[in-house]
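Reviewer 2 asked us to include a model.

Predict the structure of this chain.
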Amino acid sequence: MKGRYFLLFALLFSFVARAEDVEVDGICYHLISDGIAEVTTGSSQCSGAVEIPATFTYQSVVYQVEGIGNNAFKNCSALTSIVMPEGLKTIGTYAFAGCKALTSVVLPDSLTRILAYAFSDCTSLKKVQISNHVETLGAYAFSGCSAMESVTLGSGLVEISSGAFQNCTSLADVDILDLASYCRMKITGAAEVGSCSNPFKYATTLRINGVKTTELVIPDGVTEISDCVFFGCNAIESLVVPNSVERIGKCSFFECKNLLSIALSEKLQLIGEHAFDGCVVLNGLSIPDNVVSIDNYAFNRCYALDSVAFGKNLESIGNLSFCNCSSISAIELPNKVKTIGNQCFYGCSQLATVSLPASITTIGNFAFRDDPSLSDVYCYATMLPTAPDNVFMNSGVAKATLHVQESVLELYQATTPWSSFGKFEVVIDEIPQCATPTIALHGQKLSFTCATDRVEFVSKVSFVNSDNEHVGNEVLLTGRVRVNVFARKDGYRDSEEAVEEFDLPKFGDANGDGQITIADVTTLVNIILGKQ
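Predicted model (structure tokens):
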């Protein structure tokens, strides 16, 4: 029994010893476990230049310093510089908050995390280099560092949290050591007004691995530009996005107010919400053919944008996507666009001509509101698009002309909002339609021809019925198939569908498997289609 009590006492003593706080050479440590310690709160009395050792010895045990604990140097008003050792992994919340005399910080390469408010309100800190193994920069980590002039973002950084550089009003220079990694960065809260998660709200100079640049060339191999990564970056004047990029994220280039030109990836599929919102001097735009959707606010407030070439596969344009693009004079939408969002072209004060394709089905609220220069709207849809009465509000369409196809002229004249136009004209369909294909069966081969040259045929073959006939020791299979086909070509509307039915000849083991089954009918169909 005494032995058990002694063992329990020894374990308790060991736990207490490991958990105690000690002071060594003027720095306070919390002993986490045998051999591991972190700097703790009693250190706030330190002054001048302080160098934290990599190890220290206490009661004959050598301890590795792996962290600077929460509040460790908080409001240490006489601290002027701090050097941290290799082996340090974490800087805790508020660790150096309010150290107003701190001018210099050396972060070790071993550091992986800087937690929330770690250096907040260090009003004399002029520069910081985030080491290459830091993965997370906590919320408001450097907020209020009003004297900070430059920051270097290390290659290992994967997340910058809300407000990390808020009120760093002197920040002029940002150096990104690994641009490809930075494009994948997770930046939280940047789209919130005033949050300043990344440092670009204030910076006027962008460096890529130390080299100053105004032309941002995204590295080949990057597939996505993450949300908010260049939010507010006024250093960028031109942007080149390589063909590997498929997605530009939400707010990626929000309010890049000096961005003049962009060259987008041919493989780009999605332009996210607010992606280029507030790029006020952007003056020309070509949307690649693979883009199917432009999200809400994508090019809102691009006041200098004077021309837009839309890709041929675009299907939807989101709410306020081109709102207040006051220099655009003409819009021609490609023949796959089905939906125009609410207020999409609201406030495009120079917009005079709009061409809506035959594919258009839905136009949102106030889509062309406050477009006073509107003079001609061409609508090629033969089925009236769903559109509320307010689509053309305050755009003076009583003096404008609506151009529609003759077959639906009276329908447009009798239906709001189209009936509000002052003049109607019949338009000759400027988008030609492919001729209807002809179908022929020659022996066992099916062929398609079309009066429109170089078309693509889109076909479907289905069984109408199948039958069989016993002849001696064989079964002869036969059947009837229906063939549907239409023709397609870039710059043309799809043709009308052609439909023919054919009786298949009687045949035996067409697929050579030694059996006569319905699979032989399938084989014959594939032969007809040229697939075998």
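Residues 438-528 form one domain. The chain has a mean pLDDT of 87. We have added this to the supplementary material.
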